[in-house]
C-alpha cells in the first residue's frame, strides 16, 4: 500500500510539474511580448491576457485585469501612464514567474526527498528479504541436520535391537548347551555313584560270607 501511495503521489507531482512548466512557458512568452512592446512603443497593440485556465501556484498572487488596465490607459490618454501600466504588468508577470519557479523547485526537492526515501525503504526491504532468505536457508539446514540425526538414531536403535536379539539367542544357546553338559555330568556322576554303591554292597556281602565261613569252621 505504501508503494502504491508513493507511486500515485509521484504521478501527481509529475503532472503538477508539467502543468507548471507549461504555465511558466506562457508567462515567459507574455513577459517577452510585453518587453518587446515596451521597446517598440506603449500604444502599438493591445495588452496580452493570461490564460483563464491557469492559476498561480501560490496564494496571494496578483490577478490580471487587462480590460481595466486598457481602459485606464485609454482614459488617461498619456503614453507615460500606459508605459507605467506595462511596466507594472511586466513586474507582476516576472514576480509570478519567480513564484512558479520557486514552487516547482520546492516540488522537485520534495520529489527528490521522496525518491531518496523510496530508495532507502527499498534497500531496507531488500536487506530484510536477504535476512529472511538466510534464515530460511539456516532453518532448512537445521531441519535437514535434525532429520539426519533422527534417521541415524532410528538406524542405531534398530541395530541395537538386532544385536540384542542376537545376544539373547546366543545366550539361550549357550545356556542350553551348558545345561545339557551339566545334565550329562550329573548322569555320569549318578552312574558312578550307582556303580560304587553296587560294588560296596557286593564287597559287604562277600565280607559277610567270608565271616560266616570262618565262623562255621
Keywords, separated by commas or semicolons:
217 residues, 3 helices
Short description:
With 217 residues, this protein is mostly helical. It has helices spanning 2-40, 66-76, 79-216.
Describe the SSE topology.
Elements: H1 2-40, H2 66-76, H3 79-216
Helix pairs in contact: 1-3, 2-3
What does this structure look like?
- The protein has 217 residues and is mainly α.
- The protein has one domain (1-33, 88-215).
- It has three helices and no strands.
- It has helices at residues 2-40, 66-76, 79-216.
- The longest helix has 138 residues, at 79-216.
- Specify the helix fraction band: over 70%
- Rg, alpha carbons: 61 Å
Q: What is the beta-strand fraction?
A: under 5%
Low-confidence stretches: 42-67, 70-77
Summing up helix and strand content along with how strands pair, one would put the structural category as: mainly alpha
General shape: rod-shaped
Termini distance?
142 Å
Count of DSSP H/I helices:
3
Sheet having the most strands: none
Overall structural domain count: 1
Instruction: Tell me the total number of β-strands.
Output: 0
- Mean pLDDT, all residues: 76
Order of helices and strands: HHH
Organism: Phyllostomus discolor
GO biological process, one term: Golgi vesicle transport
GO molecular function: small GTPase binding
Protein name: Golgin A4
Amino acid at each position: 500500500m505504501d508503494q502504491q501511495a508513493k507511486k500515485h503521489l509521484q504521478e501527481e507531482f509529475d503532472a503538477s510539474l508539467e502543468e507548471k512548466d507549461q504555465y511558466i512557458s506562457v508567462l515567459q512568452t507574455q513577459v517577452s511580448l510585453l518587453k518587446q512592446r515596451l521597446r517598440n512603443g506603449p500604444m502599438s497593440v493591445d495588452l496580452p491576457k493570461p490564460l483563464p485556465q491557469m492559476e498561480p501556484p501560490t496564494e496571494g498572487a496578483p490577478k490580471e485585469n487587462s480590460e481595466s488596465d486598457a481602459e485606464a490607459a485609454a482614459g488617461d490618454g498619456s503614453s507615460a501612464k500606459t508605459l507605467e501600466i506595462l511596466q507594472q504588468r511586466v513586474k507582476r508577470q516576472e514576480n509570478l514567474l519567480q513564484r512558479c519557479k520557486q514552487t516547482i523547485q520546492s516540488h522537485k526537492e520534495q520529489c527528490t526527498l521522496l525518491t531518496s526515501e523510496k530508495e532507502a525503504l527499498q534497500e531496507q526491504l531488500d536487506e530484510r528479504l536477504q535476512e529472511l532468505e538466510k534464515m530460511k536457508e539456516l532453518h532448512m539446514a537445521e531441519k535437514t541436520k535434525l532429520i539426519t540425526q533422527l534417521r541415524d538414531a532410528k538406524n542405531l536403535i534398530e541395530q541395537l535391537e538386532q544385536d540384542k536379539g542376537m545376544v539373547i539367542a546366543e545366550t539361550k544357546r549357550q545356556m542350553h548347551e551348558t545345561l545339557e553338559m551339566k545334565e550329562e555330568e550329573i548322569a555320569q556322576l549318578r552312574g558312578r555313584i550307582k556303580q560304587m554303591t553296587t560294588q560296596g554292597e557286593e564287597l559287604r556281602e562277600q565280607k559277610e560270607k567270608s565271616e560266616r565261613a570262618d565262623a562255621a569252621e
